[in-house]
Amino acid sequence: MKIKENSNIDLPESAFVQSLKSNDTEERIDIWFYRPIGFRIAQFCAKVGITPNAVTIISIFFGVAAGILFYYPDLGTNIIGMLLLIFANSLDSADGQLARMTDNKSRFGRILDGFAGDFWFASIHIALCLRLMNDGWSAWIWVPGVLAGVAHVFQSAMADYYRNVHLFFIKGESGSELDNTKSLQADLDKLSWTKNFFSKFVLNGYTNYTRMQENLSPNLQKLLSLVKTNFSGQLPMQLVTDFRSMNKPLMKYTNIVQFNTRVIFLFLWLFIDQVWLYFVFDILVLTPILIYMVWRQEQVSSFFVKKIATENKYAQ
Within this chain, do residues 118 and 146 fall inside the same structural domain, yes or no? Predict the structure, then answer.
């Protein structure tokens, strides 16, 4: 895995590279911009003892504040909101890099990190709907606002899931954050609503979230089940190579439906004061990309199910 060091960063390349998940799943904008900033923040946090979860929580405040500032039809105020949102995403990058640098990973941290962006964009959607109503739009604007919000949840959920599946195949369980409802439900059943209310509430929500991801990927679930049954230890290198070759092109779609693309267009709509276009873009552009992404991932999964189950190609 080779990632060229940013010329403005006077740091060992290996330390920066090790703070990343994988070159396959990293977006260019992240590698060039957010990851270097996140790395600096992570280094500072490691020195002063700030935990990854604390960084995630701080990012929520900045992201929500950004959304609030988008309510005002004033470009200067909106630009401040844009800067806050960029900083929130830098913190979101930093929390994962800090967790990998300090080996301070936890399931709760993954859950918190996953839902941080939902808080940001809930704030943004609410602010834009209220802004449009102030501009004379009827309350019906909440319909596309809510639909776009729901679409965003599905887009982020599946993009994150497919990235972790890819990481599982190329880096194994230790390099992925791939969960499944069976193990989550087993852990959930051990908790008591009376004694562990908060932990059980959070894990229950995450279990349902994971179940949604699994329900939208039936062929992928067959593949993961076959892999677990047939390859209890390390995956065959040929399977890793073949899966990476076929699946890597899909990673660009997971990047498109997540943060950077939607925010670039959000900023454009704010600059021209046509924020209603953000909902249209989410529903009519990003959602079809999500549908294609899901369909294509199922095709790839079906291909490897056939190779393993019927052709026995990767028998050890």
Answer: no
Other C-beta atoms within 10 Å of 265: how many? Answer: 16
Q: With bands split at pLDDT 50, 70 and 90, how would you rate the model's confidence at 311?
A: low
Distances (CA, A) of 204 to 108, 155, 194: 12, 21, 14
Overall number of domains in the chain: 2
Cα(85)–Cα(60) distance, integer angstroms = 10
CA distance 79 to 178: 36
For residue 284, what are the CA distances in angstroms to 27, 50, 287, 290?
23, 41, 6, 11
pTM: 0.88
CB-based contact 111:199 (threshold 8 Å): no
pLDDT at 296 over 90: yes
Domain coverage including residue 236: 138-174+217-316
Which residue pairs from 224-229 have beta carbons closer than 8 angstroms and sit at least 24 positions apart in sequence? 224/165, 224/180, 226/305, 226/308, 226/309, 227/308
- pLDDT tens profile 154-166: 999 999 999 999 9
